[in-house]
Design a protein that fits this description.
Layout lengths: L1 H26 L2 H15 L1 H19 L1 H9 L4 H15 L8 H20 L4 H10 L15 E2 L2 E2 L17 H17 L10 H21 L2 H20 L5 H4 L1 H36 L1
Antiparallel strand pairs: 1-2
Helix pairs in contact: 1-2, 1-6, 2-10, 4-5, 8-9, 8-10, 9-10
Length: 290
């Protein structure tokens, strides 16, 4: 376990801690440092995001391919044989079914490392401060800035966030609500439109429901600095997909879009009925002249 701890601290936690403090030294605001750090992380992992997008598109093409649909009909009573044929077809089409999960898996060590970095950076007691000094790189030269100012807007970045308003006896978890909303938006906007009965559609729908709740729970109970990272990361990711033109608004507002389409079709029907009435009127006039 000690070896794992050394590797973890050397490769993940210490670089993240020193990067955060270095950005803090430039900006002088730890909340802004977390936001800028988030943008840097998303830019570094952008190639993985592009790869995830390509893998997702390939999987969607695979689900809709005639070859896969034929295999489903052929082996509908033999699940084991169907799985074997599915893996063969993956190889033939050059698809790695796990590649689309890689960016999501990478996020977990980043989340854990960032949480540890925030808690260590915000140390104020003598013993935690001594540990913090021992974790600093000499080239960062940020020791003179310690202890870090924990305040950002209305929140203490080392504590769970709550906004207390006049007249309310409880605090509103604004960041947790924003994490819940932005995570839901991100998952819906980035998920390709699935066809009814498509394999994996139910799992995707479950993930789109439970992941925002899980992230919202983390934002509610852990330090607000971590929740700030969640919100910034979600917004930057949505922006990345928007720049690539890959946002699926049909997933987020299907009912609204359907109503809009229905209204247009009804309008077209009304116009056609109006045209029919006019043609009938013209016919009556011609009859009267006769």
């Amino acid at each position: 376990m000690e070896i794992i701890s050394i590797v973890w601290n050397t490769l993940i936690m210490h670089p993240m801690l020193n990067s955060l403090l270095w950005i803090y030294g430039i900006l002088g605001n730890f909340g802004l440092a977390i936001i800028v750090f988030t943008i840097v992380v998303r830019l570094i992992t952008h190639p993985l995001t592009v790869q995830q997008l390509k893998s997702t598109s390939k999987m969607q093409e695979f689900q809709q391919s005639k070859e896969w649909q034929a295999l489903q009909k052929k082996h509908k009573d033999n699940k084991q044989q169907l799985q074997q044929e599915q893996m063969k077809l993956y190889q033939e089409m050059g698809i790695n079914p796990f590649s689309s999960c890689l960016p999501t898996l990478i996020q977990f060590p980043i989340i854990i490392g960032l949480y540890q970095s925030i808690m260590r950076a915000l140390a104020s007691a003598p013993i935690p401060m001594e540990k913090l000094y021992n974790n600093l790189y000499s080239i960062t030269n940020v020791s003179k800035l310690l202890p870090v100012d924990q305040n950002f807007l209305w929140m203490n970045l080392g504590q769970p966030e709550r906004l207390y308003l006049f007249g309310l006896s409880f605090g509103i978890p604004v960041l947790a609500i924003l994490v819940l909303i932005t995570t839901y938006m991100q998952s819906k906007l980035m998920t390709p439109v699935s066809q009814p009965g498509e394999q994996g559609a139910q799992m995707t729908q479950a993930m789109n429901l439970y992941m925002p709740l899980f992230m919202g729970y983390l934002a509610l109970t852990f330090a607000s600095g971590l929740a700030l990272y969640f919100v910034a990361s979600n917004l930057v990711t949505i922006g990345q997909y928007a720049l690539m033109g890959k946002l699926n608004w049909n997933n987020l507002m299907p009912a609204v879009l359907r109503r809009g389409g229905t209204s247009q079709s009804k309008g077209g029907t009304s116009q056609s009925k109006g045209g029919t009435s006019q043609s009938k009127g013209g016919t009556s006039q011609s009859k009267g002249k006769g």
